[in-house]
Amino acid sequence: MNRSEEEPENRSETVARGTPGPAPGSAHGADFLHLDRREAPAGGLADWLTHRLRAAVADGRLPVGGRLPAGRTLAADLGVSRGVVTEAYRRLTEDGHLAGDGRRGTVVVAAPVRPPAPIPTGPDTAPRRIPDGLFVPDPGAGAHDALRAVPARVDLTPGTPDLAAFPRTAWLRAERAVLADLPAAVLGYGDPRGTAALRTAVAGWVGRTRGIAVDPEAVLVVSGTAQALGLLAEVLRARGIDRVAVENPGSMGVRQVLRGRGLDTPPIPVDAEGADIDALRADGARAVLLTPAHQFPTGVVLGGDRRRALMRWAEETDGLIVEDDYDAEHRWDRPPVPALRALLPERVHHLGSLSKTLAPGLRIGWLIAPPALRPALVEAKRLADLGTSVPPQLVVAHLMESGALERHLRFLRARHRRRRDAMITALAEHLPGGTVHGAAAGLHLTVTFATGDDLRAATAALEAGVRVHPLSWHVSPNTRGSHRPGLVLGYAAHPPGAIAEGVALLGGAVRGLLGPSRGTFPGEPVAGRRAGDRSRPSGIRGLRPDAPAGGPAGGVRADPADPGDPGDTPGGRVPGAIHRG
To answer: What integer pLDDT is reported at residue 560 of this predicted model?
Structure first.
């Protein structure tokens, strides 16, 4: 199946020679949903049919589990070519609403959150109560839950993956294969490190995708990155380490997890080359947590000089590095970045998960630790939960070993790149004074401005029906004044049309609250063009000249630290990054 979200030409929207005409007595329609092709606009049969089917799924006329007519049958009833029906089914399958189910044919597997609606011309005026204390510089640990609880038309928060793309068919196939020969004893209390099958599969996965050579015995299966951080915090405190330096700006959630376990989190500045290792050395912290492959939220890569300085710091100070491999597998316009664990295995604790590749609800991740702390981490895991759920582990192992997970990842890369392009195009139109960061990889963009209050802007956006993160959430509270205001926007969860709708609402809501940007993050050079320049933003190197969706346009500036397309540098190398021969 051609998994494309682009709107193809409706080349098959006239009855092809030899295609059966309407079935006897059908006139121009079908009993199925009372479809009448005369309602379709000229040249838009596939668009019309897609919209009608999607609306029927949304309002329950086509419930989850319901079966659609065979494409040939529906085409004959409507008097259209089979290609029209095939195209409509393909688009809904691409959106995660339909799936093939063997002899049952095409069935509904998921309903959209809401019926499709036209892009609004003004803000949504539906009343929404914003919880007190939500959009403040240092909110409580429940801020993410509180934000998710507020109704919204479009969720553009970072960290929200494309849940509709979950590979249901591949998962069910793997589940059946696993359960068919599963010994009953495997379902009992097992190894707290995780099943041998998944630890072996993870060792192979990180070897293939991240260049990490590791023995399966070193892999600890955890319930996501949050549990891995909690276990590490517990073990470090027991060894007298009560401070873990974190990136600034950096993930608010990470700070909250570490501080909730009694650790101090001194901030280390981030610039165009990533975390400032000189500042780390000056702080005196014995441990540091980094997102080197795609820094959250700026999207920069930890540069080669910084990596070498980090290695020297670890060796000279007996320092400990926690590598959160955030978004490393989601890259569009740059070559892969080596994992720190591959460069200094005796000093680096490597954290990975499937939350963005499959779904956060699986709660499956891994922690690869150096030998010194490994026994203590296993004991902490045993005391925490006696081990992660076994059946999902075995299914994930099957997906990894069979190649199904890599096929799914290739599908996601094409899908997410189109969504990234759609967001940049929409930002150029509706937030032309912003500077875009991190476009070459990841599942989110950060947009900064020279002036304004991003906390007020996030409040206004939510009142208009759009969830976003203010950049101030991810800046250490006592350093907020040294950072420009901005918004952190996720694009993975919605198709291009919904992204355009959300950014249009966002632009209207924050107008006057955020001013034009004059550069990027502190320490980075100015890039881009003046607002209002309608030429193609050549500074956004993360987009090729032939990018779909027409390419971005308008005054959105580019992040000069973004490595861009591999073709921009000799041999496709990221400037400043360490590349092994």
So the answer is: 41
Q: At residue 239, what are phi and psi to the nearest 5 degrees?
A: -105, 15
Angle between helices 168-180 and 390-402 (to 10 degrees): 110
Identity of the residue numbered 92? L
What number of CA atoms fall less than 13 Å from residue 324's CA on the CB side?
25
Among 557, 479, 554, residue whose Cα is nearest residue 518 = 557
Q: What is the pLDDT of residue 482?
A: 80
Q: Whole-angstrom Cα distance, residue 558 to residue 435?
A: 6
Q: Are 182 and 382 in contact (CB under 8 A)?
A: no
Region of residue 388 (phi > 0: left; psi between -120 and 50: alpha; otherwise: beta)? beta
Report, as ranges of residue numbers, the positions in the chain whose pLDDT lies below 50. 1-26, 115-123, 125, 518-581
pLDDT at 333: 81
CB atoms within 10 A of CB 393: 25
Token code pair at residue 386: 């006696």
DSSP E strand stretches across 201-244: 219-222
Q: Can you tell me whether residue 444 is helix, strand or coil?
A: strand
Answer for the pair 505, 468: CB distance below 8 angstroms, yes or no: no
Using CB atoms within 10 A of its CB, is residue 133 exposed (0-12), middle (13-18) or buried (19+)? Answer: exposed
Per-residue confidence (pLDDT) for residue 27, from 0 to 100: 53
Element (H, E) at 247: strand 245-248
According to the model, what pLDDT value does residue 349 have? Answer: 97
Whole-model pTM: value is 0.71
- Residue 148 C-alpha from the chain's centroid: 16
The one-letter amino acid code at 314 reads A
Bridge partners of residue 323, in order along the sequence: 290, 350
Q: What are the CA-CA distances from residue 560 to residues 51, 174, 273, 417 (Å)?
A: 40, 43, 11, 19
Query: What is the C-alpha end-to-end distance of the chain, expressed in Å?
Result: 37
